[in-house]
Task: structure prediction
Amino acid sequence: MIFLQSLIREANPAVACLELFEKGDVKLFVSDEILAEISDVLTRPKLQARYPLLTRERSDKLIENLRKKASVIENAPKKFAYARDPKDEPYINLAIVANADYIVSRDKDLLDLMKGHTNECKEFRQKLRRLKVIEPQEFLKIASPAKEK
Result:
């Protein structure tokens, strides 16, 4: 969702998050599986028809840039199962293998890991204390370099 949002508008929190990555202020981890999903979503004809800025050229450029500049981790083993939304597991497991501090997302299932009351959510917080799932606006407050006055 963050990658989609970064291409459908010229300025928003998703764009600002990717700009931090572009400048080298933050490190981004991806996998081939995640890149394939991003590419699939960004090239859906329905979405491209709905959002004029979401062109094949811009989508391809983003994927190419991610392949070149992001840290690609191959075959992240399954370390955390998420029955609520198994499609989110690759993101969680990639973050675990990468020893990441944050998963930046607007996905409700992922965000609920931080505050949910299910056993899965409690297990996530207990076993993965360092890893936080946060929205782009919150990430920008944490990761943006301090502005000079």
